[in-house]
Design goal:
Elements lengths: L10 H15 L3 H4 L12 E3 L2 E7 L9 E7 L8 E3 L3 E8 L1 E6 L3 E6 L3 E4 L5 E5 L5 E8 L4 H9 L8 H9 L3 E3 L6
Antiparallel strand pairs: 1-2, 2-3, 3-10, 4-11, 5-8, 5-10, 6-7, 6-9
């Protein structure tokens, strides 16, 4: 079986994410205890209709990056949005995703694909398969996992609580656009 091609990939960002996460896994035990997600027991939570688990915290990387495991049901994905603080790198583990950038470009992303979304770019994704999808979201620099946790802690749901989600997201440099998926 042929491996999927790497799509929309900025090698420096991907290598930075992988290097940062590797450095966290090699931390001395005394430091690793401070990074609560590193012990493999971080809790699952729900935000934006997705199940999430922080695997690598921003604190554990000195702000360099974070990594969040995300499970999405068929048809699941966030509203179209823009980040002003971080680039995102998605590593697709299961399922098949479709990413839209600026409403113009659809990227097919089966398992094994890496997709990068640059800050300042309108983007959106959906799990377009008929099975549960799973991916790791690397944020460079880190910090976005705090938004996910805040949304979960307030029990917010999209679209029901979209006004509050918009207000909260603005604190993290995230704004929303009208849907761009096609």
């Amino acid at each position: 079986m042929k491996a999927p091609a790497l799509r929309n990939l900025d090698r420096r960002s991907v290598l930075g994410a992988l290097a940062a996460s590797a450095s966290v896994f090699m931390m001395p035990p005394s430091l690793a205890k401070e990074a609560h997600a590193m012990d493999g027991e971080s809790p699952w939570f729900s935000a934006f209709g997705l199940r999430m688990k922080v695997e690598v915290t921003t604190a554990s990387t000195g702000g360099t990056m974070s990594a969040t495991r995300v499970i999405s049901q068929p048809g699941g994905g966030p509203p179209a949005h823009v980040h002003t603080h971080e680039d995102e790198v998605f590593l697709i583990l299961r399922g098949h995703y479709r990413f839209w950038q600026k409403g113009e470009r659809a990227i097919e992303a089966p398992a094994g694909t890496l997709v990068q979304q640059h800050k300042g770019m309108v983007h959106q994704y959906r799990n377009v398969s008929d099975v549960e999808g799973e991916h790791i979201l690397f944020c460079l620099p880190g910090g976005l996992e705090e938004l996910f946790i805040a949304v979960a802690n307030e029990g917010l749901a999209v679209p029901r609580d979209m006004k509050r989600v918009v207000d909260l997201s603005a604190q993290y440099g995230v704004t929303y656009q009208s849907s761009i998926d096609k």
